[in-house]
Amino acid sequence: MARATALYAAGFYDKVSQNANDPRFSLDDFDFSTDQLQQYSHSITNMLKKCKLDNGVCGPQHFEVVRTKYGICYQLQIPMKPLVQLELILDPEENEYILPNDGFIGFFILLNYSSIDRGDFFIGTGFHNIVRLSVVVPSNGISCDHTGRSQLRVDSITQTVKSALYQSLLPRGLTNTVVDSDRIYIS
């Protein structure tokens, strides 16, 4: 709980809770450096329990730290090809949240800062999530955004409650975080 104590000591929690209901709210409005925000944020090293991209293994070193209006996020570059499979097992570290938190424990997924409808979504804890994405090819034939990267579109999201059997089938090294893990398939 050292992170929670640091949040209170810095006055960060008070500032955020006072402004969180304002639709114009952004963490960029506060005078916190990226290093300070990282100190109070979840660590990809602690959250990431498994990462598999197609047939290769990926780890925390493959994620880039990005500061957004939501705070510190972790970005993974995914190759743009007709079929890509990404499997993640993530621990939302529910024990690190300070109550009240309005029940928002989980992961907010952004697709390349997409401005396309359904370009972002929330994945809560306690579910097995399957997300199907596709590459967007606009009518003008140019399939990239202002940064030169292709855009992704969410085609479907399926959530089912994880069963005890599913949880017991996870690799042994993950048994201490089974309840807190979410699994996402992207293809």
From TrEMBL:
Keywords for this protein: Ion channel, Ion transport, Membrane, Sodium, Sodium channel, Sodium transport, Transmembrane, Transmembrane helix, Transport
Record-level Gene Ontology MF annotations: sodium channel activity
Family classification: Belongs to the amiloride-sensitive sodium channel (TC 1.A.6) family.
UniProt cross-references to Pfam families, sorted A to Z: ASC
Keyword Lyase among record annotations: no
Protein's recorded name: LAM_G_DOMAIN domain-containing protein
UniProt keyword annotation of Membrane present: yes
Gene Ontology cellular component annotations, sorted alphabetically: membrane
Topology versus the membrane: Multi-pass membrane protein
Transmembrane segments: none
Subcellular localization(s) per the UniProt record: Membrane
Gene3D superfamilies: Acid-sensing ion channels like domains
Main location (coarse class): membrane
